[in-house]
From TrEMBL:
It comes from Thalassolituus oleivorans MIL-1. Molecular chaperone. Has ATPase activity. Its main location: cytoplasm. This is Chaperone protein HtpG. Residues 560-634 are annotated as: C. One of its GO terms (molecular function) is ATP hydrolysis activity. The keyword Nucleotide-binding applies. GO terms for cellular component: cytoplasm.
Amino acid sequence: MNAASKETLGFKTEVKQLLHLMIHSLYSNKEIFLRELVSNASDACDKLRFEALQNDALLEGGADLKIDIHFDKDARTVTIEDNGIGMTRDDVINHLGTIAKSGTAEFLGKLSGDQKKDSQLIGQFGVGFYSAFIVADNVVVETRRAGEDAANAVRWESAGEGEFSLENIEKAERGTRIVLHLKEGEEEFADSFRLQSLIKKYSDHIAIPVFVQADAEEAAGEEGEEAKAPEAVNQAKAMWTRSKSDLTDEDYTEFYKHISHDWNAPLTWMHNRVEGKLDYTSLLYIPAKAPFDIWNRDASRGLKLYVQRVFIMDDAEQFLPLYLRFVKGVLDSNDLSLNVSREILQQDKQVDSMRSALVKRVLDTLEKTAKNEPEKYQSFWDQFGEVLKEGPAEDFANREKIAGLFRFATTLSEGETENVGLADYVARMREGQKKIYFITGDNHAAVSTSPHLEYFKRKNIEVLLLTDRVDEWMVSHLADFDGKVFQDVTKGELDLDELADDTEKDQQKALEDSHKDLVERIEKALEGEVKSVRVTSRLTDSPACMVVGQYDMGGHLRRMMEAAGQKMPEPEIALEVNPSHPLIERLDQEQDEERFVDLARLIHAQAQLAEGSQLKQPALYVARLNKLLLDLMK
Ligand SMILES: Nc1ncnc2c1ncn2[C@@H]1O[C@H](COP(=O)(O)OP(=O)(O)OP(=O)(O)O)[C@@H](O)[C@H]1O
């Protein structure tokens, strides 16, 4: 293609939306553009170094990777230049004209127009290259992919307003040069001192040296003095290789922002050097806020792999299980080969050992946070609890440890906050109680008022209130905690052996004996609708409730599976009635068989509604109820 090949292309809609929002909501943090562009430049150098392992011709004879920052006060420009991997014309179109993240549309839909809230969200999304437009009204990118001819370079230019132009240019040096034409009022950035202090503040941890042009007076130097070789503004050393005592919280936080593209400071981090059988350094972070695509299990994950300080890959998913996909960080191994690939990692024994160690480290840190900083832990749980709940199914060996990190709302806790750990639950179990009781449902209001809880409330036995979609599935994988099995209170007969004293058991027996006829009559009236009917002492205020078989799927999970189009086998449903309830007493005395059947069906329908089920024939229920109401009004 020749130089005449200039073309103008439109940004994808989502870029336009994002640009607009970003410029407005991030204006109060405008200086972050430099961090983002330097971060990209450093990634580009990392990528070049990696590709050069296979093909050192890419270095074109120059292996000194660096980032240069220039400015021109009069022209009001700032230039960020790297000699990294560079981009081809296609790369430029793909990376600087679209947003290649899945879920972008949903993300944009969540933005509210409230600048404060939106800037938080945009932070979670990652602002990247486009942040240049916060301070610039024109951005020129000149880039040449390493290994390409000088004539195959590209110039991209845009005012950030819907379109960009592309043309072929000559560029002798490989890599990318980004020229920002600062908006009026932003000339403060065309200043050596300002740029240097921003690099120190935000990019000190970048492993590639960053050089900032000196001020004119400074550069001229004293007369007769020899020009000094410029010094990098940053430490230019892989941050994780520095000793902990040398690093401040700010260093850790800025490094986190660089690798994670997250705007918020992390919740906590773990920095460890391991020597011995394995030799590696890991720096792992737990974010404070969940990224927008945490539920996309294919979304990129956060561990970068380095081998002997050389960047090898992003998303080194072999080193952490999916249920810890929120962890971000760096792993630098001295044992693996520089030629390591994803396929090799999958079969490598050392990788398994490192993975186990990293998992243990993360779980231990979470445990420690939960113990020493409960409020901080609570905010972690609120963000990532649901992800962690995938743990017992994925990581059987650690399931007890993971379960210890869970937090739930219970019948004894205040409001809907999930803040009761299983260890707390077990510690306050009633004398003789052997099981951990729970109930699942769509929301807190529905489960906390379930008839199934009446007996437990009466006996002051704590019940976990589980309302996440994954809960029933999670508990089925957990099976027990501290030797106590989990029991769904809506399943199987109430376990009086465990919970009741002798008088209560005798009473139950007496109830069963004295209501044999009633039970038979109701069974007949509900033939085909329920599997069996029995009297119960589990209810206080409600006349009846539905109970599924001990090994059947609970109502909540069943409804979700059915909503997802799965056909479920019919469960063994029993109707349990409360003989002390006035309605059941009245039913027992009903002589008119037709009215008896109507009443029994109404009670059955109500029990279904109370557990959150839908009636198969709601209109029939309404008709029956109306008939009874009319009778009453006579
Ligand atoms: N200096 C550069 N050299 C080479 N490629 C670059 C450079 N700057 C950006 N790119 C390319 O453009 C892509 C988009 O950059 P951008 O900063 O928008 O997003 P990102 O870095 O992938 O992630 P995030 O949006 O979370 O920051 C990068 O992934 C990279 O491929």
